[in-house]
Specification:
Order of helices and strands: EHHHHHEHEHEHEEH
Structural class: alpha/beta
Helix content: 40-55%
Radius of gyration: 18 Å
Strand order of the largest sheet: 3-2-1-4-5-6
Largest sheet: 6 strands, parallel
Distance between the termini: 10 Å
Number of strands: 6
Number of helices: 9
Shape: globular
């Protein structure tokens, strides 16, 4: 792929790209309600996802003041608890921090390590600052700097989140590669002048036929091989 050249800094989306967000949340919900049947567990997961997406959209539309993922996840945990009949405060509190304990994809640590030996690497996430710190430690993710969208009081795909990454990179946006499993994320990065690479993940947002990203990869190791071969 001749398109991925002249890169100085690599920026990674985290949730869904480096860690299995859906699988991790499902596991945490299951742990909070071990006696629940599959239908209730899946309803609870969907309730959590809908709440997070709705509230982040409301913030992006200016219909709610910024609230970090810690706040939104605590709200989601309470909604799940109310729906499932959970009443133990310690269980609900543990569930509220589920996003800090998401498992990495099998190739994440090794792929990041290979790339970080060659390029400065930034983790760029909608996760709040504290959640991102704890998640990186839990999942064993290596980057040179983790950037939370909380720093600009916004959520991707707001342009100020991508500008934060480019400003931190300290080079022109066309020399910054954004890596994500979500086509919507890459489109927003593209609109801010960044280069783009899609990595296929279960539950991600695949590109359409009209998307023109600099590279598409079925695993992180293949992206690492492409970048480190240049």
């Amino acid at each position: 792929m001749a398109g991925i050249r002249d890169i100085e800094v690599v920026v990674f989306d985290v949730l869904g790209t480096l860690v299995d967000e859906p699988g991790g949340l499902r596991a945490e919900i299951r742990a909070a309600m071990p006696a629940a049947d599959d239908a209730l567990a899946e309803e609870s997961f969907s309730l959590w996802q809908r709440h997070r997406e709705r509230e982040q959209q409301r913030i992006g539309q200016g219909r709610r003041a910024y609230a970090s993922t810690d706040v939104i996840d605590a709200e989601a945990a309470q909604l799940v608890a109310d729906h499932a009949g959970l009443t133990e405060p310690a269980v609900i509190a543990q569930l509220a921090t589920a996003s800090r304990r998401l498992p990495p994809w099998d190739d994440s640590a090794a792929g990041l390590d290979r790339i970080a030996r060659r390029f400065p690497v930034i983790g760029l996430s909608n996760a709040g600052r504290t959640a991102l710190l704890r998640l990186a430690a839990h999942a064993g993710l290596r980057w040179h700097q983790g950037l939370s969208a909380e720093s600009v009081q916004a959520y991707k795909p707001a342009p100020e989140v991508y500008r934060l990454a480019v400003d931190t990179a300290g080079c022109p946006p066309e020399r910054v590669l954004m890596v994500a499993a979500h086509a919507w994320d890459l489109r927003a990065a593209q609109s801010n002048g960044m280069r783009t690479a899609y990595v296929d993940r279960p539950g991600g947002d695949p590109p359409t036929d009209t998307d023109e990203f600099d590279g598409r990869f079925d695993e992180l190791g293949h992206l690492a091989g492409e970048l480190t071969a240049t």
